[in-house]
Amino acid sequence: MAKPRLLITRKLRTVVEKRASHDYDVVFNVDDDVFSEEDLILACQGVDAVLPCHSERFDAAVIRAIGPRLKIIANHSVGTDHVDLDAAKAAGIVVTNTPDVLSDATAEIAILCMLGAARRGAEGDALVRSGQWTTWSPSFMVGRQVTGRRFGVLGMGRVGQVTADRARGFGMEIHYHNRRRLPDHLEKRAVYHPTLDGLLAVSDVLSLHCPATAENMNVMNARTLALLPDRAIVVNTARGALIDEIALIAALRSGKLFAAGLDVFQTEPGGNSTLAGMSNVFLLPHIGSATEDTRDAMGFRALDNLDAFFAGQAPGDRVA
Ligand code: 8YV
């Protein structure tokens, strides 16, 4: 029987590409350039399956234009906000994601963002690199200590839970808001807040871990940022769409926020040039899951979903 034809939209790790080639007739994107919408539609029209990243947008118009051959979108990401799930369902296209395998890596980046923001990591690094480190005194580069402070998690899913565990290592008191309260063995004595506003009022550090759904768009805005304790720190390793960046910049400028640590932005790639010019932000280019181990695991997990689908079984990580 002919192997299913699979489009892999971006350059993946060699072990993942090798396994894919063994089981599928793979169309690779050798140059790793981002597809234009037109090219994505064209490339998907000629395959049975696509393994995309969050860099490819499958909105309703794209899904409709692709037509009948494509049967499955096996995402190489836990987030699925780049895919219109209702449109995929309507078109009879199965959609999967890669949960669990990137929780540790993303939690590491969240802690890096927290510490980078709290201890002025970007500012210090720039000072030494630029050769402008000409003085030292006990009042030089004084930051905020996070040990013993309150760590607020918005979205206590898999990544939120691992990040909370890491923050416990700093003696932080864990608070969270989630649609549902967690059972005791997952809550681990974290304090549940049934409302977002309740969580914000106690979050010395607020770390975002919820998906970018229509309801969560700009969930951190002028009103909600004002509810945080004075000199709080905001960390975002989830999606840029969760924060109104104009309101964030105002809160950072006014001193309401001490600092922010951001791995994700409203505009990607690129980020936000105003934020980039501010000293009290620590910025990374959306690399939460970018470790060798995790990239392999994400690729394998996406292939596991494809294998199940083409074997006539239910893929483990079906989201639509
Ligand atoms: C990935 C992510 O880097 O999984 C997600 O939702 O945002 C990141 O971990 C990216 O999507 C890789 O395709």
UniProtKB/TrEMBL annotation:
Family annotation (Gene3D superfamilies): NAD(P)-binding Rossmann-like Domain (3.40.50.720)
Question: Could you confirm whether the keyword Isomerase appears in this record?
Answer: no
User: What are the D-isomer specific 2-hydroxyacid dehydrogenase catalytic domain coordinates in residue numbering?
Assistant: 8-319
A single Pfam family, by name? 2-Hacid_dh_C
| SUPFAM superfamilies assigned | Formate/glycerate dehydrogenase catalytic domain-like, NAD(P)-binding Rossmann-fold domains
What range does the record give for the signal peptide? none
A cellular component term, taken from the record's GO annotations:
cytosol
The D-isomer specific 2-hydroxyacid dehydrogenase NAD-binding domain, residue ranges: 113-288
What keywords are annotated for this sequence in UniProt? Answer: NAD, Oxidoreductase
Give the GO molecular function terms.
glyoxylate reductase (NADPH) activity; hydroxypyruvate reductase [NAD(P)H] activity; NAD binding
Family matches, as PANTHER family: 2-HYDROXYACID DEHYDROGENASE-RELATED (PTHR10996), GLYOXYLATE_HYDROXYPYRUVATE REDUCTASE B (PTHR10996:SF283)
Which family does the entry's similarity section mention? Belongs to the D-isomer specific 2-hydroxyacid dehydrogenase family.
Q: What is this protein called?
A: D-glycerate dehydrogenase
Which organism's genome codes for this protein? Paracoccus liaowanqingii
